[in-house]
Amino acid sequence: MITMKKIMYQEIVDRVASMCQEANYNLGEDVFEAFQQALRTEESPVGKDVLQQLVDNAKVAKTEHVPMCQDTGTAVFIVEIGQDCHIVGGSLSAAINEGVRKGYGEGYLRNSVVGDPLNRKNTGDNTPAVIHLEMVEGDEITIHMTAKGGGAENMSDMKMLKPSDGLVGIKDYILDIVKDAGPNACPPLVVGVGIGGNFERCAFLAKKSLFRPIGERNPDPTIADLEIELMEEINRLGIGPQGLGGSTTALDVKIEAEACHIATLPVAVNLNCHASRHQVAIL
Ligand code: SF4
Question: Where do the domains of the chain lie, and which CATH numbers do they carry?
């Protein structure tokens, strides 16, 4: 007989609340280190100045427990649920939304969600969160959270390329999206790319890629090489930190690729701004 591990509803609420606050106050080590690295390599004096301001801003946010940006983001979750665990006291999505409500409310973080895209009335508590669920083996729940800024999300894009467009078509498309975004996505960026899947899966892959820490390459060597090549090409565009010119337009490029239909080549680009905020918790 399989024993199901029990995870309490309130434990999820409290962990999610703390993740929402930590994500906004405490820039991850990977992003902070990428700023420092960019400071060493940035060629433009103005670009260097902006990067130094980003470093200083991240330090103030961490020490004074204030958000690193006024846009505290949509709370987006990818949750891996072990098939041998059971949530006691309520549903997983209710617990996550209650955690977001608590975290954003008690942390005085800006509520950035409207309940209806047409009447635009703010829900007042940053819910509903965007929640993606993946069933996995085991008895743990792994919660990945990002506070995703609206400016960078606005400049993201998805396209169904033709298979004959090939690698050249993929690269041209990604570079065009970054060029069109210019300063509007708040560079330096983390560029998340999905290749393959189908229409909706491809967009999810682009989002998922942004949860991988900066500097961690895709395990497939061909995709890893493409990440590096694209980052070099993007950094030759000259957009620079905050779009003021320079050699640091992207801190990293992340690609997730999956199988697709013989007649299709979906590609999605999900841009993330310099406030690239992600957290992970295992219950
Ligand atoms: S896109 Fe990012 S850096 Fe720009 S305003 Fe939104 S959260 Fe802040």
Answer: 5-24+68-148 (3.30.360), 151-276 (no CATH)
Q: Which two tokens stand for residue 273?
A: 């701004």
pLDDT(1) > 90: no
Q: Is 186 in the pocket of ligand 1 (CB under 6 A)?
A: yes
Contact 249, 178 (CB under 8 A): yes
- Whether 153 lines ligand 1, by a CB cut-off of 6 Å, is no
- The per-residue pLDDT for 165 is 98
Give 171-213 pLDDT, tens digit per residue. 999 999 999 999 999 999 999 999 999 999 999 999 999 999 9
> Is the C-beta atom of 183 inside 6 A of ligand 1?
no
Diameter over CA atoms, the chain: 65
Integer Cα distance of 146 and 30 in angstroms: 14
168 Cα to the center of ligand 1, angstroms: 30
Token duo for residue 144: 């990945």
Instruction: Find the 163 Cα to ligand 1 centroid distance in Å.
Output: 34
Contact 112, 25 (CB under 8 A): no
